[in-house]
């Protein structure tokens, strides 16, 4: 049995703040919570882990819907590389992760999906796979290999679904591609969350994709048409549709902080902070590969060597949280954007995203500057 008691914390989650907060968890599940000195009367075993938070911020564990690597390793490079990258993000507060894959030949994606399905069966902190490609618009490809981009034919869609053995949780698709609207319906019926992204679609087509079941926008503002006063585009369509959540890369580079704050204002409770991190997250500047493409990282900014497009980020979710707060986003909304909102996207908001009885004992302790001090998943402390 694992048992955890954290007391004297400042709880921050989507439900708000509580001072002098405590929680008691047994076998990975929060059993009780409270405030003040009531924790002293909680019966705990001799082997329980008891921690005084000294007033630090205690949040739910972070959930990253969109991340490609870290620590010098890419998720496309197999089990060992995935493990190294996950360790970096877990040390920064990410307790649950979707393994995101960039566009690659279908055979390579099938092999990656099969490996991720094996990993999900072994590691409960891995929630499944996210395919960011290969069904992307060549006009909005960003840092994806144009040679790997294809239309979503029924045969390929079914092959990818089958390879994942039920662990393909999310896919990015440009709805203007041939067969895309039909593919959205097939994917939704298979339980896959469809995200509109890397797209040249206008507002009307984006709305059609939402009506067919797409419920997410991949890194809003990036790799899509911007807001024009005569052509609102997919951004306005997503802000107006309360069924839709928007991913946001808040690293100070992809989206200006003032625009990021606008997203929180226009889509309250529907912004999911993501990292879109590539291998250089938690590592050094230098040359890397993103799929088959060479990337140069300078001062933490990743760009393609050929074409100069921004190539993912070197972000971790704790830094995204600090930047959100510095941008003027309310702290409970900022925390919700990397806890309860992504949990809701995945249909897991009854288990993750809050510090409340019955929820998983995933928690992050941060100091008053929002720097991570400790991380727990399923009630066990994660290495830092």
Write the layout of secondary structure elements.
Elements lengths: L2 E11 L2 E11 L2 E7 L13 E4 L4 E4 L1 E6 L1 E2 L2 E2 L4 H13 L2 E8 L4 H17 L3 E7 L21 H11 L3 E6 L6 H10 L3 E4 L6 H9 L4 E2 L15 H8 L4 E5 L7 H10 L4 E4 L11 E5 L2 E6 L2 E4 L12 H10 L4 H6 L3 H6 L17 E4 L5 E6 L2 E2 L3
Parallel strand pairs: 1-4, 1-5, 6-9, 9-10, 10-11, 11-12, 12-13, 13-14, 14-15
Antiparallel strand pairs: 1-2, 2-3, 5-19, 7-8, 16-17, 17-18, 19-20, 20-21
Helix pairs in contact: 2-3, 5-6
Q: Note the beta-strand portion.
A: 25-35%
How would you name the CATH homologous superfamily of the largest domain? Metal-dependent hydrolases
**Rg, Cα atoms, Å:** 20 Å
Note the total helix count: 10
CATH architecture of the largest domain: Alpha-Beta Barrel
Largest sheet: 8 strands, mixed
**Domains, number:** 2
Overall pLDDT, averaged?
Answer: 95
Q: Outline, from the CA principal axes?
A: globular
- Total number of strands: 21
Helix content: 25-40%
Coarse structural class: alpha/beta
For the terminal residues, how far apart are their CA atoms? 23 Å
CATH topology-level fold name of the largest domain: TIM Barrel
- The low-confidence runs, each spanning 5 or more residues with pLDDT under 50, are none
């Amino acid at each position: 049995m694992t048992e955890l008691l954290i007391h004297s914390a400042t709880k921050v989650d989507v439900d708000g703040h509580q001072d002098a907060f405590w929680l008691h968890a047994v076998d990975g599940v929060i059993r009780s919570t409270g405030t003040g000195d009531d924790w002293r009367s909680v019966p705990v075993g001799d082997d329980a882990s008891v921690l005084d938070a000294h007033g630090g911020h205690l949040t739910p564990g972070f959930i990253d819907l969109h991340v490609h690597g870290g620590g010098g390793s890419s998720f496309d490079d197999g089990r060992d590389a995935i493990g190294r990258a996950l360790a970096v993000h877990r040390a920064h507060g990410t307790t649950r992760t979707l393994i995101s894959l960039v566009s690659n030949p279908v055979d390579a994606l099938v092999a990656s999906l099969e490996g991720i399905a094996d990993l999900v069966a072994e590691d409960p902190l891995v929630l499944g796979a996210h395919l960011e490609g290969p069904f992307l618009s060549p006009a909005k490809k960003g840092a994806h290999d144009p040679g790997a981009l294809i239309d979503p034919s029924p045969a390929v869609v079914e092959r990818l679904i089958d390879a994942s053995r039920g662990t393909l949780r999310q896919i990015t698709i440009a709805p203007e591609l041939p067969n895309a609207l039909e593919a959205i319906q097939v994917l939704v019926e298979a339980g896959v969350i469809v995200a509109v992204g890397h797209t040249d679609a206008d507002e009307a087509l984006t709305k059609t994709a939402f009506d067919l079941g797409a419920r997410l926008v991949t890194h809003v503002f990036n790799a899509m048409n911007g807001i024009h006063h005569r052509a609102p585009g997919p951004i306005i369509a997503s802000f107006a549709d309360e069924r839709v959540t928007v991913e946001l890369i808040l690293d100070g580079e992809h989206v200006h902080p003032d625009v990021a704050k606008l997203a929180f204002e226009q889509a309250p409770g529907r912004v999911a902070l993501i990292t879109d991190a590539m291998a250089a997250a938690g590592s050094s500047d230098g040359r890397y590969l993103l799929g088959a493409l060479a990337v140069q990282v300078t001062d933490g900014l990743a760009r393609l060597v050929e074409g100069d497009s921004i190539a993912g980020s070197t972000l971790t979710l704790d830094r995204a949280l600090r930047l959100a707060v510095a941008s003027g986003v309310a702290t409970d909304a900022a925390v919700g954007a990397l806890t309860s909102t992504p949990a809701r996207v995945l249909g897991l908001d009854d288990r993750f995203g809050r510090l409340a009885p019955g929820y998983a004992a995933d928690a992050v302790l941060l100091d008053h500057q929002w720097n991570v001090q400790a991380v727990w998943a399923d009630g066990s402390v994660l290495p830092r």
